[in-house]
Amino acid sequence: MKNTIKSFSLIIAIGLATLISCQEEENTNSPGAGALGKNSPLTTSLQRLMTANTSIDNVIDSTDCFRVKLPVQVIVSGTTITVDDAGDYQTVSAALSQTTAGGPVDFVYPITLLTPAYDEIPIANEAAFQSAVENCTVLPGEGDCFRIDYPITVSVYDAASQNPSTLTIDNNQEFYFMLSKLGDSDVYQIRYPITANDQSVSISNNTGFENAIAQAVANCGCDNDTILTDGLILYLTFANEVRDLTGLGNSLAIGNTSFVTDRSNNANGAIFLEGGSENNQVVTAGNTANDMLQDEAFTVSIWFNRQADNFQGQSESLFTTNLLDIVLEGPNTGIRSPKVIAPGVELVDQDWIDGALFGQVGIWHHIVLTYSGTQLSLYRDGELRDQATMTFPQSMMSPNFLGGSFQGYLDDVRVYKQSLNAQDVLQLYNLEGDLGTCLD
After folding, report:
1. In this structure, which topology does domain 232-430 adopt according to CATH?
2. Which of 1, 74, 130, 210 has the smallest CB count inside 10 Å?
């Protein structure tokens, strides 16, 4: 009897030992304290971080809403260029800089668009492409501020099926897909340490990861003064680059240019059109999103500073579209007053002539043209100088050109799809020179 009891006790002991052993083994597969879920704050930050960079190919599609899947063929001035990788964007840019139109390119259809969420949109023709541009929404992204150094290792644990797996993540797209596929009961753990921004940032836990992302975004985030930005469809600050901050169009400098001190003494805060030829310009490609007449009203604001008084032509161009010219014009090279030429009307800054300002070489001036749908108004240096009643035909007014037979500085160019009032114009005139490189 005693032997039977001993045997039974031994069986129970072995059973308990086996159960404990199994539980310990199961616990090694279970998530630890650093587990993250679908709705964790770090997961939300990572999803924004992992969205596709859709601004990298703006030279061909002129929008941040999506990028065009490669390879793709584009046509510039009748020449077909095959874009196989990101390095070929510079080839397209160089080709566009040799054209008077400056863009946009024509695609060889069909093409495929990639959204920030890596969704693919088949596009059969130009009409479908323009429709996609009109109806797109740019997702918030932070990938330009913070870059993970891959590969990293992530353990994913499905609490419902108790099925753990270990993944090696090699790029943003793989990380984004992993996060987007998380279910409500799924958790994951990042195997630390990891590094970011070319190993300049070291991260050892989830809290450190959150803090690193927040700090990176804060340091490179947009600190631009957003005064009077509602309705902007073109914004060129020329802060050591030629780029439309609205993201609606692709802007390129053609001919000899450099960056110079602006009106507020900010270094490299304005662009210098050095050549002074008819093709020495900044060209912005047109599309339905930056059509000046899309809401039947517009405003153009330009700072300019002439640097030469030796032109033989009749006028120097500040801003040109297919329906509008803002020029400096006079009977000779010494008399150049602001003038607007539009269908059926001309506006002249007579106060410029009466005040004997004439050539005004080396002096900054501010020109604003507003159109309310029925009235065209010319402002110079914050004051109304001329106006007329007229109506523009409803058609595309892009691409637009800055410069042309103008040798001088240009800065802080804004185009709105609405008519600013006199108080707004005065406020623009009193703003300091802008060195912002982003909006919002």
Report:
1. Jelly Rolls (2.60.120)
2. 1
Geometric angle at alpha carbon 425, from 335 and 384, rounded to 5° = 45
Q: Summarize pLDDT for 330-351 with one digit per residue, the tens.
A: 766 667 899 999 999 999 999 9
Among 68-72, 197-201, 363-367, which is the least confidently predicted range? Answer: 197-201
Instruction: Find the length of the chain.
Output: 440
**For residues 371 and 323, what is the distance between their CA atoms, to the nearest angstrom?**
13
- 224 - beta bridge partners? none
Instruction: Please tell me the pTM assigned to this model.
Output: 0.60
DSSP string, 332-350: ETTEEEEEEEETTEEEE-H
* Furthest-apart CA atoms within the chain: distance in Å: 128
Task: For residue 410, give the 3-state DSSP assignment.
Answer: strand
Q: Could you tell me which residue, 424 or 163, shows the higher pLDDT? A: 424
CA distance 316 to 378: 17
Q: Which of 266, 254, 250 is nearest to 411 (CA)?
A: 266
Tell me which residue has tokens 């108004």: 377
Residues 264 and 181: their CA atoms lie apart, in Å, by: 51
Would you say 228 and 427 are in contact if contact means Cβ atoms under 8 Å apart?
yes
Distances, alpha carbon 53 to alpha carbons 118, 126, 199, 306, 349, in Å: 10, 23, 21, 39, 45
**Within 10 A of 12 (CB to CB), how many other CB atoms are there?**
10
Q: Specify whether the CB–CB gap between 133 and 287 falls below 8 A.
A: yes
Q: Under 8 Å CB-to-CB from 53, ≥6 apart: which residues?
A: 67, 141, 143, 144
Residue 379's φ and ψ, nearest 5 degrees, are -115, 145
**192 to 89, 98, 214: CA distances (angstroms):** 36, 50, 18
What ranges do the domains of the chain cover? Answer: 32-49+144-220, 58-134, 232-430
Instruction: Tell me the two tokens of residue 161.
Output: 């099926």
Give tens-digit pLDDT for 288-331: 888 999 999 999 999 999 998 765 567 899 999 989 999 998 76
* pLDDT for residue 11 is more than 50: no
Peptide bond into 193 cis (omega under 30): yes
Q: Please compute the mean of the pLDDT values over residues 270-277 and round it to a whole number.
A: 93
